[in-house]
Amino acid sequence: xYIQAVTLFGEMFRSITEHGVTGRxxxxxxxxxxxxxxxxxxDNKLGYIDDRPFxxxxxxxxxxxxxQAAIHAAKSQQNGRVIYxxxxxxxxxxxxxxELAKLDGLILVCGRYEGIDERLLTSSIDEEISIGDxxxxxxxxxxxMLMDAVLRLIPGVLGDADSAGQDSFxxxxxxxxxxxxxxxxxxxxxxxVLRSGNHALIAEWRLEQALRRTLLRRPDLLAERELTPxxxxxxxxxxxxxxx
Length: 244
Ligand SMILES: CC(C)(C)c1cccc(C(=O)NCC2(NC(=O)c3cccc4nocc34)CCCCC2)c1
Known about the structure:
This protein is an alpha/beta fold.
């Protein structure tokens, strides 16, 4: 997959191109990255890419032309889907990430200042996606969150040694509790079942814990999920226990 980011701060993306699973996958050629800076497309000598908002108000707005020229330059390299990371976007979900992971390329447009000229959305953006309902300073960190979620779903990016296959969210539930050595930590022991060696019992315990946590903390995730017969049985048991 070829990912290009239209951004004033291309250096920020080193945090995923040079580290961890995504960094290794880039080195292995499983994906490619380029940053495209709108400032190099500003037609004035001084590289202005932002200006004051019509109608007044605080801050500056990113001008449409340099952004459009940057997107155009990116599109000359690939026919990728143009996504504007935006608070007005559709919430990013696992399902959306899986959809994007099937594409050949993405062009991620990152806003700064107070936002971008609305006419760019009409002329050059295919889709707006949001990573959540909180204020951030720019679209770069949201873009990197999207990239990480998408890249993990590309075959080969996660070696089978990684936990992706068992990714808690891959099955739509919150994660079960995890433990490692020492067996006793500050007076707290590891649940005996996890040291029993009985893998069927361990799998059932983990599923029950994930269901209990999801029911208690994120019932909304349960609402939209098909349950296997075993999950339904465990959920009935949990609901009964919560009532007692
Ligand atoms: C109601 C709500 C969500 C709190 C909100 C409402 C109005 C503005 C913002 C906000 O943060 N404006 C700043 C801005 N944010 C983002 O880019 C952004 C924010 C959140 C999730 C995102 N996912 O992708 C991009 C995202 C960065 C600078 C350029 C203008 C956009 C927030």
